Amino acid sequence: MKSLVFEDFKPGPLGRFGPRHVTAEEIRAFATEFDPQPMHLDEEAASRSLLKGLAGSGWHLCSIIMRMMFDGFIGRTASLGSPGVNDLRWLAPFRPGDDITLDVEVMEARASRSRPTTGIVTLKAVARNASGLALCEMVSPIIVRRRDEAATDVAR
After folding, report:
1. What is the C-alpha separation between 73 and 15, in angstroms, rounded?
2. Structural domain includes residue 22
3. Would you say the pTM of this structure is higher than 0.70?
4. Is residue 1 part of a domain?
5. Could you read off the pLDDT of 59-81 as tens digits, one per residue?
6. How far, in Å, CA of 78 to CA of 150, rounded?
């Protein structure tokens, strides 16, 4: 049974997750497969880019954020998925050696009008490096089973 249900999500801070250490090798491996732009692959090319040095792909950072959210709370939540991302902003590059933390806040929690057995929890996640610099902000809803529905699921 998943331990967190819709009723457990109240507006306000949910938690800080991490840190997650990022290496140059990891940045290059992700970029090689998914975002092979020079600023993510090659030190010299990256130094000539707007980023002024090797930096991870924003999509890599989004993947790290998702993993941190899963390990932090979604893995034990009666989540039914997400309808998408409302807002996503890459604010600063992340670099080899960064230790990334994630601050998550519940912005809104409301019962679904179309599916009364579920609720919609809107989360704001801010990824930061060790010096506290915000790297990325994401606002995204998740669909979560309500307490009575989650209990019924276990009985089935």
Report:
1. 9
2. yes
3. yes
4. no
5. 999 999 999 999 999 999 999 99
6. 7
Q: Which residues of 117-153 are buried (b: 16+ CB within 10 A; e: fewer)?
A: bbbbbbbbbbbbbeeeeebbebbbbbbbbbeebbeee
> Distance between CA atoms of 26 and 40, rounded to whole angstroms?
10
Please count the structural domains in the chain. 1
Q: Is the pLDDT of residue 155 over 80?
A: no
In this structure, what token pair is assigned to residue 20? Answer: 């997650």
Joined together, the tokens standing for residue 81 give: 């998925």
Which structural domain, as residue segments, surrounds residue 83?
6-155
pLDDT digits (tens, 9 = 90+) for 1-15: 579 999 999 999 999
- Rounded to an integer, the average pLDDT of 75-104 is 97
- Whether residue 87 is contained in a domain is answered as yes
* DSSP code string of 62-117: HHHHHHHHHHHTGGGB-EEE-S--SEEEE-S---TT-EEEEEEEEEEEEE-SS-TT
Q: In CATH, what number is assigned to the domain containing residue 16?
A: 3.10.129.10
- Report whether pLDDT(150) > 90: no
